[in-house]
Design goal:
The complex is a heterodimer.
Chain A lengths: L1 H26 L4 H26 L7 H19 L5 H30 L4 H21 L9 E2 L7 H19 L2 H11 L1 H6 L4 H27 L1 E2 L6 H14 L4 H17 L7 H15 L17 H5 L11 H4 L3
Antiparallel strand pairs in A: 1-2
Helix pairs in contact in A: 1-6, 2-6, 2-9, 2-10, 2-11, 3-4, 3-5, 3-9, 4-9, 6-9, 7-9, 10-11
Chain B lengths: L1 H31 L6 H18 L11 H27 L7 H21 L8 E2 L8 E4 L2 E4 H23 L1 H11 L1 H6 L4 H26 L2 E2 L3 H16 L4 H21 L1 H18 L14
Antiparallel strand pairs in B: 1-4, 2-3
Helix pairs in contact in B: 1-5, 1-8, 1-9, 1-10, 2-3, 2-8, 2-9, 3-8, 5-6, 5-8, 6-8, 9-10, 9-11, 10-11
The chains are: A mainly alpha, B mainly alpha.
Chain lengths: 337, 303
């Protein structure tokens, strides 16, 4: 029982947050606008955490993450808006989930396609290829008329709500945390710390880099699907380089290499521009100034590579018998990879 | 034939804008090793500054254009001003982060870029609305082999060519150029040889800013509209041009800029969205064949 609680108390925190928000909403303290900001914060946390897997833990440099988001958004929207239009109420949730899954798969597939040749490039050259990828995706989406071209897609059903977003956000964070503490995760971190040494230790660096890229692309695709079903409207230009750089900013302001940092960075920096709304025209200038000052005085980001307890698996816990499945996770500590 | 020549001239004009801006990216990258995402905004500051300086010289206007001397003065002030802002940006935002991981400097550059776009936007006398750029030269058109070429186009392409030649001379033939090359090879060793690294970096940013201002004037003369966001996508395209040519290499930046400009104009003739994407497509193809760009040399990492 104690162990069960230990594993699931972060999820319980999210459930508590949801109940609190619902209560405050019914009392009338929170209105739809706050709920929408929270939904975007949840989506941004998913995007930032997945970007963290590539940039923060695998040490690659992807600056076109919004491209994967747009693929997921369009993939999901095509499923729910075009393939399964006007489904009865009981079928809405399966269609929605199918849409998100398809969106994630499209993003992961394209991620693998772009990753295969380009992950041979290093550092800044990889960065520029991912930027180019994001812009090419945007240009192609603008050219396809059946999905609205540059005008975008309208009339996407409003399936996503705060509960779904919190659910997928929690799932993402669990998945990423467990991944990072798995043999895969250690391989990623080894590549980040020293690629040549990792290669010499027998890690197939290209394979792990592509794996990391694909997982991140999948999560970004799902987040994009959620985004499409919150806004009910998507257009290629919402996923421009500006959007990608937003996620980079959340990631590095929160602290790369720390999932807690991604949560904090994405949540705070999504809310901050909304808080600054009273500044009207000066809002974005002040936001940018705050960002530069944070980077100058706390360059390692708010969390600086550290994790709060619930985003960390202690060494002792790795030796323990796992909660599900009888096999002891000794491969997780003996460093098989 | 005439159409092709016409597009070629447009391509050269756009290419000179990209080349001048790409030079700034490539020099900063070569010397400091960071991607300065705010560089495109220096172009905006140059063009915006020229607009306001030209307003100051309103009284000197004859028949809607300015005398040659005044134009020279306007361009010179814009170059000095933008160079100064670039030096200030480096001193405030980038210098404290020089020994930190490069991503940190890059994110700061994204923040600086947001600031440089949104601060003027919030200023009451600039604001978000586009303004029409004054005509600095009286355009006279010539017919060459059936293509119509204006004097503005010729002057702008010449101005870009002269600036680039001057830069090439400065970097390869002068003392400060030698210092720049030394710093780009090894900052610490250069410092031990008595080179003031901070000064060299400041001068690099100054030159980059001044070139961005010329590039902004070229762009705004061709497409006479200035607004606070004009720098961001031009900056991205020029960054692509710099990488295409091999980032860190001055000849590569010029070559990349012209390739990109010409390709973009020809592709836009087919479809405007394709025109936007063609630069990125060329980039990916070239990087897959030559992973360090056209002129770049691949550095093998030693253990």
């Amino acid at each position: 029982m104690k162990k069960l609680l230990k594993t699931f108390y972060p999820a319980l925190l999210v459930v508590a947050l949801y109940i609190a928000v619902t209560l405050l909403r019914s009392v009338g303290i929170l209105n739809g606008y706050y709920i929408q900001v929270m939904m975007f914060a949840g989506i941004n946390i998913m995007m930032t955490a997945s970007l963290n897997l590539v940039n923060g833990f695998t040490g690659q440099f992807c600056i076109g993450h919004a491209g994967f988001m747009s693929l997921g958004a369009y993939g999901a929207a095509i499923v729910t808006t075009m393939l399964f239009k006007n489904v009865p109420a009981f079928a809405q949730i399966p269609v929605f989930l199918l849409g998100l899954f398809v969106g994630g798969c499209v993003a992961a597939l394209i991620g693998a396609l772009i990753g295969l040749p380009s992950l041979k490039l290093k550092g800044d050259y990889l960065a520029i290829v991912t930027l180019a990828f994001g812009e090419i995706v945007r240009a192609i989406l603008r050219l396809i008329q059946p999905i609205g071209g540059a005008r975008g897609m309208i009339g996407i059903p409003n399936y996503a709500n705060l509960a779904w977003i919190l659910f997928f956000m929690t799932l993402t964070l669990y998945l990423l945390r467990n991944l990072i503490y798995s043999p895969y995760g250690r391989a990623f971190i080894a590549i980040r710390d020293n690629e040549i040494a990792a290669d010499a230790m027998g890690i197939d660096t290209t394979r792990y880099k592509i794996t990391s890229f694909c997982i991140a692309a999948f999560i970004a695709g799902v987040a994009g699907g959620l985004y499409a079903h919150v806004l009910a409207f998507i257009q290629p230009d919402s996923f421009s380089f500006t959007k990608s750089s937003d996620f980079l900013v959340y990631l590095y302001a929160g602290g790369s290499g720390s999932l807690t940092g991604s949560i904090l960075g994405a949540a705070l920096l999504t809310v901050l521009p909304e808080i600054l709304r009273f500044l009207t025209d000066w809002r974005l200038a002040v936001y940018a100034a705050i960002l530069v000052i944070v980077m100058l005085y706390r360059s390692e980001g708010l969390c600086g590579g550290k994790e709060l307890p619930f985003m960390r698996i202690s060494r002792a816990a790795l030796y323990e018998k796992p909660l599900f499945g009888g096999r002891k996770k000794d491969s997780a500590v003996s460093g098989k990879q | 034939m005439a159409t092709i020549l016409q597009y070629l001239v447009y391509g050269l004009q756009l290419g000179s804008v990209y080349a001048l801006l790409a030079l700034g990216y490539t020099m900063v990258y070569g010397i400091v090793g960071m991607i300065n995402f705010a560089h495109g905004d220096f172009l905006m500051i140059g063009a915006m500054g020229t607009y306001f300086i030209a307003k100051l010289f309103e009284g000197q206007r004859i028949d809607g254009t300015y005398p040659m001397l005044i134009v020279g003065v306007i361009i010179l002030i814009a170059m000095l001003g933008t160079g100064g802002i670039a030096v200030g940006t480096e001193a405030i935002a980038y210098r404290p982060l020089r020994n930190k991981p490069r991503m940190i400097a890059l994110i700061t550059a994204v923040g600086v870029s947001m600031f440089l776009e949104n601060f003027p936007r919030a200023l009451p006398f600039i604001g978000p609305n586009p303004r029409s750029f004054p005509t600095l030269f009286t355009p006279t058109s010539f017919l060459v082999l059936g293509a119509s070429i204006t004097s503005t186009q010729i002057i702008m392409i010449l101005l870009a060519a002269i600036t680039m030649a001057a830069l090439y001379f400065v970097v390869n033939r002068t003392k400060i150029g030698g210092q720049m090359r030394a710093v780009s090879m090894d900052k610490d060793a250069a410092s031990l040889m008595g080179i003031n690294v901070n000064r060299v970096i400041s001068i690099t940013f100054f030159i980059g800013g001044a070139l961005a201002a010329v590039s902004g004037i070229c762009y705004a003369s061709a497409y006479p509209q200035v607004d606070v966001y004009m720098g961001s996508w031009l900056g991205n395209m020029s960054f692509v041009a710099a990488v295409l040519g091999g980032i860190g290499d001055i000849r590569g930046a010029m070559l990349g800029g012209f390739i990109l400009g010409i390709a973009q104009i020809f592709a836009t003739a087919i479809n405007s969205t394709f025109g936007y994407a063609v630069g990125f497509i060329i980039l990916i193809i070239i990087l897959l064949v030559k992973p360090a760009g056209i002129m770049g040399k691949l550095v093998v990492e030693k253990v």
